Amino acid sequence: MKLPHWSLIALGGWLLLSPWILGYASVNLALWNSITVGALVVLAAFWSVSPPGNA
Q1: pLDDT at 31 > cutoff 70
Q2: Cβ(12)–Cβ(39) below 8 Å
Q3: Which DSSP string do the residues of 35-46 spell out, in sequence order?
């Protein structure tokens, strides 16, 4: 069941890099939106993959 989590990490990474790959890095609002949402997706996916702590 870990495949969907790793695919979310890949899609979040794509979202982080897409402004430069697709050439819209000069559009400030779209650039920061892609960076912010991509980082949140990657962080949430890593959080869901990580094992639970010793609480």
Answers
A1: yes
A2: yes
A3: HHHHHHHHHHHH
Taking alpha carbons only, the member of 42, 33, 46 closest to residue 14 is: 42
Residue 13, SS3 per DSSP: helix
At 32, list the tokens. Answer: 């920061």
Residue 54 zone, left/alpha/beta (φ > 0; ψ -120 to 50; rest):
beta
Q: Confirm whether pTM is higher than 0.85.
A: no
The whole domain housing 30 covers 3-49
Task: Quote the number of domains for the chain.
Answer: 1
Residue type, 27: V
Residue 55 falls inside a structural domain: no
CA distance 30 to 3: 29
